[in-house]
Amino acid sequence: MLSILSYGFLAGLATTLGAFTVLFFGQPGRKRISFYLGLAAGVMLAVISFDLIPTALKLGSCWDTALGLLVGGFLLWLLDRLLMQIFKNSNHLQGSFRRLGFLIAVGIALHDLPEGIAIAIGYSAADKLGPVIAIAIGLHNIPEGMSIAAPLSVSGMRPIFIILVTLAVSLITPLGTALGILLTQLSPANYAVLLGLAAGCMLYLVVAELLPESRRSHQHISYLGVLAGMIIILGINRWV
Questions:
Q1: Number of domains making up the chain
Q2: Which residues, at least 6 apart from 2, have a Cβ–Cβ distance to it below 8 Å?
Q3: pLDDT in tens, 94-123
Q4: How far is Cα 167 from Cα 105, in angstroms, rounded to an integer?
Q5: Range of the domain at 35
Q6: What is the pTM for the complete model shown?
Q7: What is the C-alpha to C-alpha distance for residues 32 and 198, in angstroms, rounded to an integer?
Q8: Are the CB atoms for 181 and 120 separated by under 8 Å?
Q9: How far, in Å, CA of 31 to CA of 38, rounded?
């Protein structure tokens, strides 16, 4: 059990590693912001298209998956409205980037929970599958950590608080792994809804936040980031 949890913990810490990468190279310029946000959008689009939705459809019905998508998207929409109220008195640009950073953090945290469960389920299915899933999750958690840190850094948040935010997010993966250990008998329909929920949250982030903000900073670099993010996930899936 401890070895399974360690896989989840290491995969989650990759989120903080991504944040360290951004903070180490200093506050990003417009082109780097565009690339980081585009990269996160590409990673999320690839995970939604090639991992979350296909797996949900295999484990449950299209209705289960659609329910998760709608609920996930609606929850992030509500959270977006709440964060807009919280930061409405901030400097417009500063508040916008801080809201985006926290939205990404919450979306990734919700996405990391079923990923952690997947590590436990993979390990229960075959000893070698759990570590392989953990490696794949860890690799794409790096650009996700970058996507959290970039807007928070631009908003003026202190590096120590950015690290604490990403550390909090990173703990969701091992939490999901622990939950997966307890729920190895989880019904396929419920798991499909959970995967659909994660996909819905991520899709809202991509369409409503990441792509518009990335293109606003630099349109061509944005597309390059999206392409790079999708290639990364396709490469991981092919390798795994």
A1: 1
A2: none
A3: 667 777 788 778 877 876 777 777 677 656
A4: 10
A5: 2-20+29-239
A6: 0.69
A7: 27
A8: yes
A9: 10
Query: Would you report the helix, strand and coil content of the chain in percent, each value rounded to 5?
Result: 90, 0, 10
**Which residue shows structure tokens 């959290």?**
148
CA atoms of 233 and 118, how far apart (whole Å): 16
Cβ-contact 195, 59 below 8 angstroms: yes
Residue type, 178: A
Contact residues for 58 (Cβ-Cβ < 8 A; gap 6+): none
Residues 188-199 pLDDT 10s:
557 677 778 778
- Cα–Cα dist 112/116, whole Å: 6
Measure Cα distances from 7 to 14, 49, 116, 173, 178 in Å.
11, 25, 9, 9, 11
**Is 114:172 a contact under the CB 8 Å cutoff?**
no
Q: CA torsion, points 183, 185, 187, 188, in degrees to nearest 10? A: 90
Residue 186 DSSP class? -
Q: In this structure, what DSSP letter does residue 209 have?
A: I
Contact 43, 140 (CB under 8 A): yes
Residue in 234, 22, 195, 20 with CA at minimum distance from that of residue 112: 195
Non-local CB neighbours of 128 within 8 Å, separated by 6+ positions: none
The residues, any chain, with a CB within 8 Å of residue 222's CB and separated by 6 or more, are 34, 35, 37, 38, 211, 214, 215
Q: What is the largest CA-CA distance in the chain?
A: 52
Residue with tokens 């506050």: 27
Residues 6 or more apart whose CB falls under 8 angstroms from that of 25 comprise none
pLDDT per residue as tens digits for the range 118-161: 677 656 644 555 666 677 677 667 877 887 888 888 778 888 99
